[in-house]
## 1
Amino acid sequence: MNDEQGTLSKAKAAQALVCGLPDDWHLHLRDGDALKSVVLATALQFGRAIVMPNLKPPVTNVSQALAYRQRILDALKLVIDETVRNIDRYKTSDILATIRMQHFFNRPDASADWMLEQLLQAAHFEPLMTLYLTDHTAPSDIDEAVDSGFVRAVKLYPAGATTHSDAGVTSIHQLHHVLARMEMRGLPLLVHGEVTDRDVDVFDREAVFIDRVMIDLRRKFPGLKLVFEHITTEEAAHFVRDAEGPIAATITPQHLLYNRNAIFNGGLRPHWYCLPVLKKERHRRALMQAASSGSARFFLGTDSAPHPAHLKEHAAACAGCYSAPHALALYASAFDAVDALEHLPGFAWAHGAAFYGLSANTRSIRLVPEACQTPQRLGFGERHIVPLAGGEFVPWRFDGFVDC
Ligand code: DOR
Ligand code: ZN
């Protein structure tokens, strides 16, 4: 337990893990009220995040990316200001304000000063923007993206593969001139690696994508920076481990912690449903092995993808797991379960920045081996959201920015 100043007892401090401030290399922040509901949770734990462009309509050019980036920064400022006001009320033990505080800090014993310090740090959060690749993307869009200095990558959604992918690419072969420009300018291609062919079993779509698309992409554009996003299979982990050239993969907390049984455990559980879908235990183990191998090709990307609970608990449930508020606690628990905590800083802090050609964050965070309950439900605009593993206990707790 923390004392009033927010410092740890000696015993807990000895076991704590201090890690360079992580970045989230795959994140969905949405827009409007939904954006306001989720942006602070990420800014309280991560220095930067690659923000996915699958809005409706999608973010396809630099001016849209600039406007979206500004909406993210405005929403963050607004929520921080609002939270500061709540902290003042929390100081006077206002019960509603206390509940709102727990929404963000998940820590009933936190002092008001500690929370204010955390918010000051969160204000430094930097969204890294992406463009949505469409059949109409031109090489000039790539030049503008690189020249902007704030667009860091382009996302490939095969049309129909997932949430808001209807504007996605129908044939990657028609876009070779665009990929060639990306290769030349050093702009990474982030790949949602699933075929959309209805005849291919949903559990095989990633492995088939490697055979039909990835191998060819790697061969035709050997210098193109590729990120195989949210990998879910042994085949993908081995492909990324062994391929030639600049290639890496992000891995989500759900794919490290759960296999597909989680979706069917005691009934159909939509809050464990995302795309690519959870796979068999063999695959989970291969992902855990890759993440904890120390290889710089694997790094953190939560794919935190909020949907309101009523659209998840639905006859046609939306795909996406919302993990942002407890993402680092989940990752620490996964690495600890295989006795590989020494590899968490590489995975969470160093590897992604190096791949993107950015310097690693200089600030630090702390995690403590103390069971904590994840939030059961959270406000989401006018609605609410049920996060991944909502209400469950996880063995690690995120303890905030260090020495601030
Ligand atoms: O489960 C998913 N949800 N996978 C994706 O690729 C997209 C995401 C979303 O935007 O909801
Ligand atoms: Zn995603």
## 2
Amino acid sequence: MLDKNFLWGGAVAANQYEGAWNVDGKGISVADVMTKGSVNQPRQITDDVLHHQEYPNHLGIDFYHHYQEEIKLMAEMGFKCFRLSIAWSRIFPHGDEDKPNEAGLAFYDRVFAECWKYQMEPVVTLSHFEMPFYLAKHYGGWRNRKMIDFFLKFATTCFQRYQSKVKYWMTFNEINNLIDTDDPFNAWTGAGVLYQEDENVEQTMYQISHYQFVASALAVQAAKKISADNQVGCMLHFGPIYPASSQPLDQMASVKAMDRRFFFSDVQVRGAYPDYVKQLWKRHHLQLDITADDLATLHRGCVDYIGFSYYKSSVAEFDSKTDFKEKPNPHVSKSDWGWAIDPVGLRYILNVAYERYQKPLFIVENGLGAYDKLENNQVNDDYRIQYLQAHVVQMLKAIELDGVQVLGYTPWAAIDIVSASTGEMAKRYGLIYVNLPEVQQGKAGIYRKKSFAWYQKVIATNGECL
Ligand code: BG6
């Protein structure tokens, strides 16, 4: 039997659904210069907002103007919580201002009030693939130590303003995506950085990560000072990378692959750098700007819980040059975008992460991106129900059989929004369907999918009826 306070809900991110990209004083964000892509065509990052380009995040689903109708539907589903993020560039349009933008702050006052109207607890990510474009362009993004102060100011402003409305916070969404330096998407959305051809990318990546760790640890301390009730978590992408075979070298490859994924939570949960990474820095002769004060800050700013996304698993095969090569998992099926579907992987990662940290875990993203069809105002997304049901079953096993402490479950996504990786609206995750042509005409254009009713029942029975 699940705890009665278990936080069932749904998740979204500001840049993917708010729209109103230049309304009420909002500045341009790094997501506002990303064009539309597809499963075969990566999104382009342009040097500014260019008139001949299409930028899907500019409109999103226009939550900014329809938040009341949308939150009402989430409440109808029975959401106990709503995971959303605050657009940094709405609060500090350039990022280096002395004073925040009052209109931006007031928008979230309205959103949080709407949530509480239905007793829905907001769970807030401070930086979810969105930071002021100005900071990326004029300061070099998180390459620059000054970012720590800018972020802390943004975080503190939010903690102060929303102290009676928000208790659950997360600092950086999927901070560990930074480790995958091959895809420019990761450093751009996560840190406002585009790597140069002639730079030591590995060194820059560890430096960026360090500044974010320090900023996150300072934010944890600031949040606690403002209210002892505040709970601040990290947020990681936790896809298991299993050994490709029972060969000892593949087993070792999996350990090394998972160390790279866990490196970020190791620092944010334990407050210190793990030995394996210190050895790696030595071997690779990396020179990092890490001060004694920084290390003390990390130690004092450990997170309270671990938020994570779970979508897919993969496998690691031994490779003599790089320790491991990550490959697709041949034992599981795939979504239309090639993402592995592996419900047992959720129970697996819950166990592994809980054994590693003994801290509460919060599944803040899990879901299926699919092509949905609206016919006669209905969407029969049985495939999504099947996906979510299979994952909830595994989550319940982790809680009830394995004793893992899980705070809540917020599937991705509460409502259809723009896909982060492809910029498409066609890659839908929501329990609520959004008809974009209607949104373009100024309407909300929202419809309950079949999964809406299914999830409503799950929440009403606290997971008893799946
Ligand atoms: C997570 C992100 O990586 O995956 C979300 O935190 C994102 O922002 C989600 O939308 C699904 O990815 P995508 O690319 O299919 O939208």
## 3
Amino acid sequence: MESELLRQQDAFFQSGATRSLAFRLQQLRSLLNAVQTHEQAVLDALQADLHKSPTEAYSTEIAPVTAEIRHALRHLAAWMRPRRQPTPLLHFPAVSRIIPEPYGRTLIFAPWNYPFHLLFAPLVGAVAAGNCVIVKPSELAPHTEAVTLRILAEAFDPRHVAAVSGGPEIAGELLKQRFDKIFFTGSPAVGKIVLRAAAEHLTPVTLELGGKSPCLVDATVPLDVAARRIAWGKFFNAGQTCIAPDFLLVERRIQEPLINALRAALSEMYGSQPQESPDYARIINDRHFERLSGLMDPARVVHGGQTLPAERYIAPTLLAPVSPEDAVMQEEIFGPLLPILTYDTVEEALELLRRYPNPLAFYFFTQDRALRQRLLETVAFGGGCQNDTLVQVSSHSLPFGGRGQSGMGAYHGKHSFLAFSHQKSVIQRALWIDFAFRYPPFRVPLRWL
Ligand code: NAD
């Protein structure tokens, strides 16, 4: 049974209201306006939900969204234009075009870790592509959910874009309805539920999932810089980042110096008492706090390890030596625990990497060109960086997405527009000439074909 909201959105879409460039630009401007108006409320909500510092919240939640909107405003006219393509000689005279078309009724699910960014960034693509949208914010970040609802209500007519709030039950109800495109960000387990439900209606799906993203470090890099960039990427949002380095794979002879460099980087960033740092986030809820505490084997803690259950605080923690058999290596960590594994030969490192499903991200710190080439050719992953962490996510020109267990499809910049568009291929033929040889009875010798 279709909901009243979906019926209204369907009628709105069928009316053609979302088709024009002018409408889409106006809606994107309206969204930009509403986001800017509620900027402080968004920062407060992220502080309340995750103890995100205003700087971190602004740079990873608000700025990426406003940048996506501005990028779309600048390029949308070009993205929407039908693209002329070459026509095979056989079909001459003719003109071939690809016409990007909105899917129609779309559904976006957001997770709780970047609850603002990961809802609004795909929404920009959906609106730019001319769709109607229902968004389902994460119920686990309730303050951000509340301000999200306010922004959406202010920016959009609900027949065009509306939010439905609730947990798995409501999400399940939504998934029973027929959408023309579903965009899901979340865990691989729920991703499977979404894909199964979408199969019922043969709805195309983009899945932005997670996994264990490895970070390899060899002895050719300056360890102080590597340690700063790793600690920054891992302990941002207290490790609750889908593309955070999940574990380190370190050339054995630099294990000790790298641990020392990581300790130094952590104390520069968060001081000797990270629970007092305004820049260090908290774990989202008690369930995740307990799960993470359970993964912390005290015998392996070489730095950190302290917890404050009342605040859901877990110190930035280094674990070493860790083996692939340890509990912390059996699931995506999604928290501030950094296991350190070692390797002696590149073969050994590659063999370990092959044990895990394709990760969303892969990082490698090396100045060895041959190793870089080998890693790029042999490790399958969504996206990543050489000599840094996380920064691949902030480029409009790089499609962001996983492969295999870490997802399917991609977005950001023009790729978001494409994720929410069907590419309609059309050949426009001329009528002034018509060759008889194409029609039966066929007389053309096979060797001419
Ligand atoms: P989650 O899968 O639990 O929830 C995501 C969304 O699905 C939420 O809106 C939630 O309400 C909904 N949901 C939960 N259970 C459901 C069910 N049974 N049926 C239908 N919908 C349901 O994920 P999460 O805990 O919010 O986020 C953490 C996960 O997301 C991690 O695995 C992380 O790596 C991944 N993630 C991926 C990206 C990415 O861009 N690839 C970004 C952030 C997080």
## 4
Amino acid sequence: MYNFQFYNPTRLVFGKGSINELPKLIPADTKVLILYGGQSAERNGTLAEVRAALSDYALFEFNGIQANPDYDQLMPAVALIKQQNIGFLLAVGGGSVIDGTKFVAAAACYQGEPWEILETYGKHINAALPVGVVQTFPATSSENNNGSVISRYSIQAKRSFRNPQVFPQFAILDPEKSYSLPATQLANGVVDAFIHVCEQYLTFPVNAAVQDRFAESLLITLKDTGPQALANPHDYDIRANLMLATTLCHNGLICSGVPQDWATHKIGHELTAIFGLDHAVTLAIVLPTLLQMFRDAKRDKLLQYAERVWQLCDGNDDDKIAAAISKTREFFEQMGLRTWLRDYDINANDLQPVLDNLARSGMTQLGEHKNITLEMSQTILEHSI
Ligand code: NZQ
Ligand code: ZN
């Protein structure tokens, strides 16, 4: 196991009715800005509960944060915060709203042009406004991590940043608030979370028994509860297990002390930037091909994954690995995601802008061995058609 430091200060407030805890979590006499997306949080009653719980606070609202949040669309929130001297930001929504809120929290305190935050991956953030979260979409773990992914549509860019200053102070996780998710989004969330674990687990062994077993329990929980949640959208226990699993998939714990990949995400982000595909869809396309291409380098962990997650015990090691990769793709398709670029009318002639973007953002040495060059990314994409 590698040396590591684990730090995660986000308080998780889990369960039915937990929005009522808000006044205990936000200091009194603070001006609060509620940030949200389209109409989903209004329609399913989450915002009404939030406004009621915070009725003693001076409340401001910023709405319309879109999926894959846009830098230019977020900047008016920064202006509003400065103008009104806002002291606390409350994100009500999914990963996009949470990521957008983290960016705004850092941008409001940043000296200089805020796009620099993305260009420098968050390295120069020295302060940020406090952020809290009411999560409505189990997927990204953004509610308890220090990362954020921001797009800038005017230049077809999708970049991420990371900094301890943007850890949310708390995350309210009420499984009932996610009941209104359409099946396609629910499926996206399950697949995104599953692939978060793969990025931290399907690398090479470093004798990290706890991290491995924890990762396997998350993968098994997702592969079991994902289809159950699709079939029973209002079952509390299923949704509660799903929500807890997605929250723990990418919160800094299972990546502690082990190698990490993340090439699927880096390539996937550029597919979203160029073609507008949903985040999880891009991952479901790239991961199975990447595993196939790097099955030798990832051999030991793929075998462990086959045996422990998919209970594949028959045949020789190569058979088990092949079956595990097939089962992974089948699982994504069972959830309703299509896993080939051709399913989205994308062919080899369309790929150059994706590669240009990877080059422009310096994504030319990806993967746990830093050996996924631009040429390799091209091959992965070509084999995903
Ligand atoms: O805009 P509204 O009306 O809220 O609708 C949203 C949105 O259209 C809807 N939705 C959310 N909660 C709902 C709901 N609809 C009905 N009922 C509910 N309870 O779902 C749609 C998608 O929401 P979004 O927030 O975009 O989804 P997700 O949570 O998957 O977030 C995706 C974003 O997170 C980034 C992705 O790149 C993408 O931009 N990621 C962030 C990460 C992080 N910060 O650590 C890691 C991830 O790998 C990922 O890259
Ligand atoms: Zn993701």
